[in-house]
Design goal:
heterodimer; A: alpha/beta; Rossmann fold; two-stranded antiparallel sheet; 6 helices; B: alpha/beta; 2 domains; seven-stranded parallel β-sheet; five-stranded parallel β-sheet; about 30% helix; elongated
C-alpha cells in the first residue's frame, strides 16, 4: 500500500496571531511553525500501517522552501520520502489541485489529510482532492483499518459517530482519534539523522485557478472587563444571564 | 438565477441550522435581487421554510438517501443547483454539510468559503467575512468563481423571520454510486450535541476527577445544554474525545459557554471564542480565562456549581 500524507505547515497552537501589510498578510515574525495537528494524527496512523502492514509513506506539502523543516520533521518521525510542490498555497482549491496531481503521478492508494488546518480552517482540501480524483472520501475520521483494498472507517458525526465501509483508493480527512495524543512521536536523534538523507523532492506546480482570494484580516474586538459575581450571590448571576445577556 | 440553500433535516424534521441557513440565503437573495430555493431531502413537512424567506422548495424523497452519503447528497445538490441556475449555494457548518460541500464545490467549479459569520459585505466582488486561525482572527475572503458556496458558521447569523410562504415541488435527481456504505451509527439521542447546542457547559482539570462530573451533567440538564471538556481532561480519559473543545478539538459557537475549572489556555480560548457569552467559574482569580469572559465567579466549583443548579432550577420554575 502506498500512502500519501498531506502536511500543512502551520503556526504552533500557542502562537499569537498578528497581521502585516495593512492587515493583508499573516505576520510570521517570531512564529514557530509545526506540522498541522490534524495532519500529525494521520501521519502517526500511517506509521502504524508502515510498521504493521508494510506500507510506504510519502509526505507532501504545497508551499515555499520555508516549509521544508516541517517536512524534515515528518521524515524524522518516520516517513520514507517527502515531496514539496513549489508554489505558494493561496486557497483550498489550488492546493487540492496540486495534491491531486501528486496523487495521480505517484499512484497512491490512500491519501490522509487533516480535516482542516489550524491556520486558515478552510476544511475543504481533503474533500476537494477526493472530488478531483473521483476517489472515495471519508471526513472527520477517528478510526481507520485497512484490509487488502477494503477499509473500515469511523467518522465523527454531530453528537456521535458512525462506522462506514469503503474501498481504496480512498481519501481521509483525519483528526484526533485516528491515534491518541499519547501515540504521537517526538523525533529521536537517529530519526533526525536519517531524515537528512531521505529524499525531499521539489516538484513544479500545475496550473490551478485561484477560486478564493484572501483580501484582509481583522482581529476580534477586545473584550470588555469581566463582570465578577460573588459566589455568595449567584442569584445575581442568574439575573444577569437572563436580563442583561439574554441567554437563558 | 437564484440562491440555493441546503436545509438539513434529521428523521424528517428540520434542524435549527436549516432555518438559520435559510435566513442567510434570504439576506443574500435580497442583496442580489433574486429568490431563494431550498433543497430538502426526505423531510416530512417543509412549510416552515417559508417563514425564513424560502420562496420555493425542491423536495427530494428517495430511500437511497435515508442515510447520509456525501457523494450522493453532493450529486443531488449539484443537480438542483444546475436546474435552478443557482449563483450562490448556502450550506451549514454541520459535520455532514462540511463533508459534502467540498465535493459539491468540485462538481460545480465553485469557490467555497467556510465558517462565514456575516452576510456578504459586497456581492461584486463577492466578499464574505469568516473566522480563521481558529477564531483568533477574521478573514475577508473574495470568491472569484461564477457559482459560489458559502458555509455559514453555526449561531453566527441567527434566525430572521419573513412573512412569506414557500411553494414546493418534487425533484428527482439521479444518484451516483455511493462508494461509502454506513454500517452502524452510534448517536446519543437523549443528549444535545455540541454542534447544535445553544448552551455548552464545559469543565476542566479543576474538577479533580471523572467521578465529579455528575454536577456538570446536572447543570447541563437544567439548561438544556451540551457538555464539553478541556483537552487535558480528554487526554486523561476522564471524558470522551468527542467532548474535547478547543483548537484541536471541536469548535464551539454557542450563545452561552460556561467554563468550570478551566484555566483558559490560548488553545482552549481559540476554540470557544466564537461563543457569544462566556461565564467562568474558577478558584484562581488569576486564571487567564477571566480576561476572556463576560461573567466570572471566583470560587470553589464544588460549592458554586451545586448552588447555581438550585438557583437555576428555581428560576426555571418561575418561567
Amino acid at each position: 500500500m502506498k500512502i500519501l500524507v498531506c502536511i500543512s505547515h502551520v503556526p504552533d497552537t500557542t502562537s499569537k496571531i498578528n497581521f502585516s501589510n495593512n492587515d493583508t498578510k499573516f505576520d510570521t515574525n517570531g512564529v514557530q511553525f509545526v506540522i498541522n495537528p490534524n495532519d500529525e494524527f494521520g501521519l502517526t496512523r500511517a506509521m502504524w500501517f508502515k510498521e504493521k502492514q508494510g506500507a510506504s509513506v510519502t509526505v507532501v506539502n504545497v508551499g515555499g522552501a520555508e516549509t521544508e523543516p516541517t517536512l524534515r520533521k515528518a521524515l524524522a518521525i518516520g516517513a520514507d520520502e517527502a515531496i514539496r510542490v513549489n508554489t505558494v498555497a493561496t486557497d483550498g482549491f489550488s492546493v487540492a489541485k496540486q495534491l491531486a496531481n501528486v496523487v495521480n503521478n505517484g499512484g497512491y492508494d490512500l491519501v490522509i489529510a487533516g480535516r482542516e488546518s489550524i491556520d486558515y480552517n478552510g476544511g475543504m482540501v481533503p474533500g476537494m482532492v477526493a472530488g478531483l480524483l473521483n476517489a472515495n472520501f471519508v471526513n472527520n475520521c477517528i478510526g481507520l483499518e485497512i484490509d487488502g483494498t477494503s477499509a473500515k472507517v469511523v467518522r465523527e458525526i454531530d453528537g456521535g459517530k458512525e462506522t462506514v465501509s469503503t474501498a481504496l483508493p480512498l481519501v481521509i480527512g483525519g483528526q484526533k482519534g485516528l491515534v491518541e495524543e499519547s501515540d504521537l512521536r517526538i523525533p529521536n536523534m537517529r530519526g533526525i539523522m536519517m531524515a537528512r538523507k531521505k529524499p525531499l523532492n521539489v516538484v513544479d506546480p500545475v496550473d490551478a485557478n485561484q477560486e478564493t482570494t484572501s483580501v484582509s484580516f481583522e482581529k476580534p474586538t477586545p473584550k470588555g472587563a469581566v463582570t465578577l459575581v460573588s459566589p455568595d450571590n449567584l442569584d445575581e448571576l442568574v439575573s444577569l444571564l437572563h436580563n442583561e445577556a439574554k441567554v437563558i | 438565477m437564484s440562491v440555493l440553500v441546503y436545509t438539513e433535516s434529521e428523521q424528517g424534521t428540520f434542524k435549527k441550522t436549516a432555518f438559520e441557513v435559510a435566513s442567510y440565503a434570504k439576506a443574500v437573495a435580497n442583496q442580489l435581487g433574486t429568490t431563494v430555493t431550498a433543497v430538502a431531502i426526505n423531510a416530512n413537512d417543509t412549510s416552515a421554510l417559508g417563514t425564513y424567506g424560502v420562496d420555493k422548495v425542491l423536495n427530494i424523497s428517495n430511500s437511497q438517501l435515508d442515510k447520509f452519503n456525501a457523494n450522493a447528497y453532493a450529486a443531488a445538490l449539484k443537480q438542483a443547483a444546475e436546474s435552478e441556475g443557482a449563483q450562490v449555494v448556502v450550506v451549514s457548518s454541520s459535520a455532514d454539510s462540511k463533508y459534502l460541500a467540498p465535493l459539491l464545490a468540485v462538481g460545480l467549479n465553485a469557490g467555497y468559503a467556510t465558517n462565514v459569520v456575516a452576510a456578504p459585505s459586497s456581492t461584486s466582488p463577492f466578499t464574505v467575512k469568516r473566522t480563521a486561525f481558529t477564531n483568533k482572527a477574521f478573514e475577508n475572503t473574495q470568491i472569484n468563481t461564477d457559482v459560489k458556496i458559502v458555509g455559514v458558521s453555526n449561531n453566527a447569523f441567527g434566525l430572521v423571520e419573513n412573512s412569506g410562504s414557500a411553494s414546493a415541488e418534487e425533484f428527482s435527481p439521479s444518484i451516483p454510486e455511493l462508494g461509502v456504505t454506513v454500517e452502524s451509527v452510534d448517536k446519543a439521542t437523549d443528549k444535545v450535541s455540541i454542534a447544535d447546542a445553544e448552551i455548552v457547559v464545559s469543565a476542566g482539570r479543576g474538577l479533580k476527577g471523572p467521578e465529579n462530573w455528575g454536577m456538570v451533567e446536572e447543570l447541563a440538564d437544567v439548561l438544556g445544554a451540551a457538555t464539553a471538556c478541556s483537552k487535558p481532561v480528554s487526554d486523561l480519559g476522564w471524558r470522551p474525545h468527542s467532548e474535547h473543545v478547543g483548537q484541536t478539538g471541536k469548535p464551539v459557537a454557542s450563545n452561552l459557554y460556561i467554563a468550570i475549572g478551566i484555566s483558559g489556555a490560548i488553545q482552549h480560548l481559540a476554540g470557544i471564542n466564537a461563543s457569544k457569552v462566556k461565564v467562568v467559574i474558577n478558584t484562581d482569580p488569576e486564571a487567564p480565562f477571566f480576561k476572556a469572559a463576560d461573567y466570572g465567579v471566583v470560587g470553589d466549583a464544588f460549592q458554586v456549581v451545586p448552588e447555581l443548579i438550585e438557583k437555576l432550577k428555581a428560576f426555571k420554575a418561575q418561567q
